[in-house]
Structure formats: structure tokens, C-alpha cells
């Protein structure tokens, strides 16, 4: 699905995120909840106004999962199978929410990388994250 | 009708004042055509769209991007009256251009991403939320006259 060039773009951007999963993830979640408040409905356990610690903890968990996906771009289904089970059986996040998360992910990348966030990086990450979302929702029914 | 708070209006207007419409418009449309290649279906007459660099450098893409984003400038001036402001454009997009309204959402999302590249930390979550509200409202206004 991803060409060799696209994989290289994904890996290149991941190198910039690796080590900063918590802060990146926290900003991602903060943007998600601020821009798309309905997404908070899936995070009742974080409270109505999640504090910074909660955002950092959960953000880190999410970004670490993205890191797993980056390491296994050629075999997402196997690598993300437990997470796919979790989403299908426990979390059951409506699939329409994944594009919202992806949009916020792109905005975080764009605001941090600015002019260095090339259109090829954006295209590769959009395609990659969309592929991750497909795998995570594949077992829903 | 969408209601924008005073803070949202200030956020949108203040950022818009700093936007280079020609530059940002070209980038927004160019990125749309690269990241979502199927959107190229509306631009057969634009010449070379065969590669990322061809698209981003294409003068027709830049010119049309500027035109589209200038129209957004109109939205910023009429945030309380978007349906009327875009009524004619809505009819045009339905009757003549035959554009699936889904594309308005894609373009709106692209505007947020490009603004983020230009304004970085200044494009805060609240700023992003205000712009998302505006681009969604414009998309709805453009779809309003579809039949």
C-alpha cells in the first residue's frame, strides 16, 4: 500500500517524534478535544477537563502505538491485532472519529515542522494513518 | 445559523490579517491535489498535474488557489451571514461545477494544516477550533443550495 518513498517519509517524520511521544500525544489529544468536543465522549475516564498528566499519559500510550505501526508498516494487521481487538470489543470508537484524530495529527506535525512539513510528508502520513485506522476498525463487524 | 463567539471572531480575523492569500491559497489547493489525488478530477484544464512538484509549481493551481482563498476572506468578513454570502457560489458549485460537497470539507481541513505550517504555536488549539468552525460553516453554506 505504501511505496518505498512513502515509507521513507513516514520513518523520517517519526524520527522527529520519537522520544517526544508524551508531549506530542498530549497536544494531539488537547487539539482533538478542543476542536471536536464530541470526541471527549470516549474519554469519560479522563474526566470532563482532563489535566495535563492525564493527557500526557494517554497521549504517550497512543503515540507509542503509532510507533509500533511505523516499525511494522509492511504488516500492520499482525502488529496492531491486539489493538484492533481492543477497539472492536471494548472501545468501539465510531469509525467517523479516526479522520478527526488524523486531522489533528497533521495539524500538530504542521505546527511543529512548519515549512519543513512538506507536501510529500503530509501525503505519506495521511495515507499511513488512514491505513492504521482501517486496521483498527476492521474487526468491528 | 452558526453563531461565532466574540473570541472566535477575534481569533479568526486577527490571524486572517496576517495571511498571504496568494501564497497560502496556492499551497492549500496544491496540497489538496497532491494528498487527495482524486480531487484532480475537477481540474482537467489545468495542464501538468503529473507530480508533486508539477502541481505545487503549476501557475493555474496557484491562481485558482488564490481565488478560492480570497473567497474565504469574504467568509471572514461575513461570519454571521455565511449562507447568504455563499448562496450564489453554492448554486454555481452544484449546477455548473458539479462538485461533491465532501470536497469543501477536505479543502477546509487543508486550510487548517497550511495555517499551522505558517503560524506554528500561534495556531493554538483554540485558534484551530475557531478555524475549523469557520471552514465547516463555509462548507455547509456552499452545500446549502444543492438540489
From TrEMBL, chain A:
Pfam (any one): Globin
The question of whether Chaperone is a record keyword is answered with no
Q: Which GO terms describe its cellular component?
A: blood microparticle; haptoglobin-hemoglobin complex; hemoglobin complex
Can you provide one Gene Ontology molecular function annotated for this UniProt record? Answer: haptoglobin binding
Residue ranges of domain Globin in the record: 1-141
Which GO biological process entries does UniProt record here? Answer: hydrogen peroxide catabolic process
Keywords for this protein: Heme, Iron, Metal-binding, Oxygen transport, Transport
Tell me if Metal-binding is a UniProt keyword of this record: yes
Q: Which InterPro entries match?
A: Globin, Globin-like_sf, Globin/Proto, Hemoglobin_a-typ, Hemoglobin_oxygen_transport
Report the Gene3D superfamilies cross-referenced here.
Answer: Globins
Q: Which family does it belong to?
A: Belongs to the globin family.
Q: What is this protein called?
A: Hemoglobin subunit mu
Please give the organism: Odobenus rosmarus divergens (Pacific walrus)
From TrEMBL, chain B:
Record keyword Transmembrane helix present:
no
Q: Name one Pfam family in it.
A: Globin
Keyword Oxidoreductase among record annotations: no
Q: Which residues form the Globin domain?
A: 3-147
Among the GO biological process terms of this entry, one is: hydrogen peroxide catabolic process
InterPro entries with a match to the protein in the record: Globin (IPR000971), Globin-like_sf (IPR009050), Globin/Proto (IPR012292), Hemoglobin_b (IPR002337), Hemoglobin_oxygen_transport (IPR050056)
PROSITE patterns reported for this sequence: GLOBIN
**Alphabetical keyword list:** Heme, Iron, Metal-binding, Oxygen transport, Transport
An MF annotation (GO) of this entry: oxygen binding
Q: Which SUPFAM superfamilies match?
A: Globin-like
Q: Give any Gene Ontology cellular component.
A: blood microparticle
Q: Which family does it belong to?
A: Belongs to the globin family.
This one is known as Hemoglobin subunit epsilon-2
The encoding gene: LOC113914335
Amino acid at each position: 500500500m505504501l511505496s518505498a518513498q512513502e515509507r521513507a517519509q513516514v520513518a523520517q517524520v517519526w524520527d522527529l517524534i520519537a522520544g517526544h511521544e508524551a508531549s506530542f500525544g498530549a497536544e494531539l489529544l488537547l487539539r482533538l478535544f478542543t476542536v471536536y468536543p464530541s470526541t471527549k465522549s470516549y474519554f469519560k475516564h479522563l474526566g470532563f477537563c482532563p489535566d495535563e498528566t492525564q493527557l500526557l499519559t494517554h497521549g504517550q500510550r497512543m503515540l507509542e502505538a503509532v510507533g509500533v505501526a511505523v516499525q511494522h508498516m509492511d504488516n500492520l494487521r499482525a502488529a496492531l491485532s491486539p489493538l484492533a481487538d481492543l477497539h472492536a470489543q471494548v472501545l468501539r470508537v465510531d469509525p467517523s472519529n479516526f479522520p478527526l484524530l488524523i486531522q489533528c495529527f497533521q495539524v500538530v506535525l504542521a505546527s511543529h515542522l512548519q515549512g519543513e512539513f512538506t507536501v510529500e510528508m503530509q501525503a505519506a502520513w495521511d495515507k499511513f494513518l488512514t491505513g492504521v485506522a482501517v486496521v483498527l476498525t476492521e474487526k468491528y463487524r | 445559523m452558526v453563531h461565532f463567539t466574540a473570541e472566535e471572531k477575534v481569533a479568526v480575523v486577527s490571524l486572517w490579517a496576517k495571511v498571504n492569500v496568494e501564497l497560502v491559497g496556492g499551497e492549500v489547493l496544491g496540497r489538496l491535489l497532491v494528498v487527495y489525488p482524486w480531487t484532480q478530477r475537477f481540474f482537467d484544464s489545468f495542464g501538468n498535474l503529473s507530480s508533486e512538484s508539477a502541481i505545487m509549481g503549476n501557475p493555474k493551481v496557484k491562481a485558482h488557489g488564490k481565488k478560492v482563498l480570497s473567497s474565504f476572506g469574504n467568509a471572514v468578513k461575513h461570519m454571521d451571514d455565511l449562507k447568504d454570502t455563499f448562496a450564489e457560489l453554492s448554486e454555481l458549485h452544484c449546477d455548473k461545477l458539479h462538485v461533491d460537497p465532501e470536497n469543501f470539507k477536505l479543502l477546509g481541513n487543508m486550510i487548517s494544516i497550511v495555517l499551522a505550517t505558517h503560524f506554528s504555536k500561534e495556531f493554538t488549539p483554540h485558534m484551530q477550533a475557531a478555524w475549523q468552525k469557520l471552514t465547516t460553516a463555509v462548507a455547509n453554506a456552499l452545500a446549502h443550495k444543492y438540489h
